[in-house]
Amino acid sequence: MNAPTPHTVHAAQGKPAAGQPIAFVSAEALRERVHAAVNDDHLRSSFRGAMDFLMAKRAAQFPDESELVSLRSLSEAIRQYSLSKLPDLLEQLEANLTRNGVHVHWAETPDEANAIMLDIARRHQAKLIVKGKSMVSEEIEFNHAMEAAGIGALESDMGEYIVQLAGEKPSHIIMPAIHKTKEQIATLFAEKVPGVDYTDNVDALIQIGRQVLREKFEQAEIGLSGVNFAVAETGTLCLVENEGNGRMCTTVPKVHIAITGIEKVVEKLEHVAPLYSILTRSATGQAVSTYFNLISGPRKADEKDGPQEVHLVLLDNGRSQAYADEQLRKTLQCIRCGACMNHCPVYTRIGGHAYGTTYPGPIGKIVSPHMMGLEQTHLLPTLSTLCGACGEVCPVKIPIPELLVRLRGEAQSAPHANPAMVGQGAGYKPLVSFAWRMWARIYAQPGAYKAFSWLASRFRVFSPSRQSGWTVARTPLKPAPKRLRDMVRERH
Ligand code: SF4
């Protein structure tokens, strides 16, 4: 197995990641999805309402602008510092986790990650895996991989449970079922949960879900969770959650598997506090979450609960490729708060499903190309107004608009040429460069410009319908039938 040891992260030179994308929405399908979403008044008003609510809650958490400014700077610095030492921190994390009794695994691709976890499940003859919230497990389509092997994987986060029942993917990284109304959830429960009658009482619906899940926690042989921060100096996995299901997944079954992207490492425990503070406030507008779990190993001999075995799977899936490029590395600063989505005018109008990728919204548009290749995702960076709201709100100051412009350029110049995101100098093309130089000369000489614009409007019918990368996502450029100078002359 070509596992990404810290050395491969050191050595990564921008080469395409191995492995095929497992989720792919074609350009045609993406257009159709966006079109359908934009025309769905109900969906638009639901998302608008939910996002306005979250934006107001976040704003209320930062009444003091100067505190926000300094916390953002501190968080950005911690993330950049952690990434600058990533290979060393990964080695330290592995050593300390191993010392604590945690089994550490490295996976380069989704297939490798699934194979590792399937192997653990088979060794324990598991029939059911109960899951806490984990976007990385969505990224690798863990549920499908387990189900294909005859092992049940049940979501225990309420939102994830609802979308799993509906056979859908999450539409938001923090609130997976935010696109559903309580009436839709009531209908879903009545149809899918045995013995449940229709009720749209929210408390009753939550109790129904809890009842189903409580039994499953006891039955499951394995609990799976994500990781919000992994602390290298102590070998600690930090888990932020609100429902308590994460704690159930990581303590009740006899085996706990945690899965995370390799970028989630920080050096010291003291680095977690500011990140945690800005994460919860940016994500759900909470000062702190209801639960904050610190996991440093399996159950000890004198402890009453906890798993007997703990595993951590560290997934690359294109991250070391992003890491190799100084500008794209900033993508890895993300702490998955979802604030960029809540503030994005495009996400707010089309919702998360229209993107067709695991991570929707602004963050999805900059991380998906690393995971799935720019060939597969070349339209994603165009789903943006470049208004800058995402960059302004990001708690770790990822320059999302800047990265989107870079990806747009690269996608436009060679969307089909590269099997994956390569990311270096792809924007340069001699022909394009020559065309711009000629244009600059014509534009600088009034006589030449006059003649050129006259010719362009006379012969506009010969404008090509395909204009290099421009027409991949836009209508062809055509000179106006009448020049502006002629229209002005006619008026006066
Ligand atoms: S890009 Fe920034 S705002 Fe968006 S999810 Fe990541 S940390 Fe949050």
TrEMBL record:
Gene Ontology terms for molecular function: 4 iron, 4 sulfur cluster binding; metal ion binding
Swiss-Prot/TrEMBL keywords: 4Fe-4S, Electron transport, Iron, Iron-sulfur, Metal-binding, Repeat, Transport
Stretches assigned to the 4Fe-4S ferredoxin-type domain: 324-353
Keyword Cell cycle among record annotations: no
GO biological process: lactate metabolic process
PROSITE patterns: 4FE4S_FER_1, 4FE4S_FER_2
Pfam families recorded: Fer4_8, LUD_dom, LutB_C
Xref: InterPro entries: 4Fe4S_Fe-S-bd, 4Fe4S_Fe_S_CS, FTHF_cligase-like_sf, Helical_ferredxn, LUD_dom, LutB/LldF, LutB_C, NagB/RpiA_transferase-like
Protein's UniProt name: L-lactate dehydrogenase complex protein LldF
